[in-house]
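Archive entry. Fields below.
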Amino acid sequence: MSTSEIDRQWTTRLRKRTFGKLPPEKMLPDTQPSYVSSWIYVFGVATISSLVVVIATGCVLAIFGPAWWHTSNVGHFVNSMHLWSVEIFFFSMVIHLWGKYFMAAWRGGRALTWITGMVLFLCSIVTALTGYVSQSNFDSQWISTQAKDAINGSGGGAFFNLLNGGQMLMWHIVLMPLILVLLVGVHVVLVRIKGVVPPIEENAGAVQ
Amino acid sequence: MSKKAFRPDVDAPEWKGGHSPYDIIKEGSIAIAVVLILTLILAVVFGSPDDPAITLKSWSTTAPVDFATTALSELNGTSGTATYGAPYNSQNSSASQQLGPLKLEYWIGVHIPINTAKVFVINPLKALPGQPALDKDLAVFQNASASAKTAWLNNYTKAAANMKFLNNQVVVNASDAGPVPLMINDLTQMARSGALDEALLTGDSFYTTDYTDSLLFISDGSYLGQVAQADHLTGSQWGMMNETGSWPGQAWLWLYTFWYQVSPMNSSSNGDVEVLAIMLLLTVGLTLMPFIPGLRSIPRKSKVYRIIWREHYQNQTKD
Amino acid sequence: MSSFLIGALINLNHPDHYFQWHIFDISAANAIVIILMLATFIGALLLPFPGRRRRKENQ
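PREDICTED_STRUCTURE:
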């Protein structure tokens, strides 16, 4: 087998592409550009950390099934943790968004990072909605019967029925977490490939 | 060597300056620990809400007249669900919400067909065992001509404006209403026993995960909305971002719920789809911010970045 | 222990206080969350970030 044949293999090409763009020292860096020195930088990590706690508490709720938390005190406490980690998640994500906006963090070929971040924000809202309607309590009844009109108005109600408890629970605990985790992965890898956006260049003339 | 002009809101030169040590794994571990501790504290201190679901039983027991009136509207085809249009039924295209000329709801069509008279009233009543009088009346109703049905329903509906619930019976002084009085009263009794909750859920199969029928029925009444109103959850109360009790809700929906407060969405019959469209447009705008001249310059012109990178700019002037 | 877990130290299971002004209408709980977010954001911008000194120069 010739070298060129090996070079043409899909596997070889994927490996070269991946590790060419993202060598280990970029994926797991041990230094950071010196301009990265502000508390605003912690909110991206805080968002991902909240997501870890959200998923972990969600997994505990999943172990015992959707009705457990209504009848068990421990279940109710795990539900409380799930709720509050979601509040921290959105809290951190919005501050992260504000911070990245004021850094114009899309500069230098980082537009896709910004876009995946926005898609993540949207997907998080859908995940939260499916969660709220999966609580199987008064909240779910009210939110599902109210929100259905917007979904129906868009034509989507025919396929995404907020009143279908089973469908919503599946979306909440399978489809949406899968999409979120994949997208977070893409978002983080993009940040690692491109690096943290440098400060806005004030002497544009000097750079040219 | 000619270069394209440097665009400060789009371009960023590669960093050639210094680096500081950075332990990404340690940072992540500390962050997870901090969030976990914070979550534990908030959960211990504040807990979480869990207001029990409303059932057809609890609704018809607490507000029997509202239930019976709603049941009548399901039977005579005037309820919210009966007149909803797609995706539940499509009496006419004007029932559906539309966005300007776009009748998305109507075009996509009926995918969850619901005949409210049949599904919410007649079928559950048929399932009641040992009711010879009711069975007879149901047969009369179903075999009657359309004009006879309409006449009975109209007569009953007129009189139902003064409906009362006395001695556990629905009382309506209607004359020539055929089998309608018995049907409405029996459905109310059925609901108060809890049997209607069962019938609507398990009408088609033993295992159930779909609450569409029960939820639509409940939301056609006034009771659900009254409970929500008391909890400050309705649309005009910015309810979308509120939670039952005194817990924080979905504060991130503030802008979404804002649009429901302003004209024309606050009174439009297409309000839901209009607000959705506005939010989609704004979201697309924010997503494509990097490509929109003017908007993408706001961060630079706001100078907030000078606070974030103040050390960097201080060092720059020193150099 | 169990009543401790379900009861929470501060009982929020009562109607919230709402601030109303013109068309605006917000619960105390949401107002606190949003004010905290703004405060955290401003704090994150203004508070000095500790201990990140330049060590390694890449020339």
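CURATOR_NOTE: Residues 259 and 278 of chain B are 8 Å apart (CA to CA).
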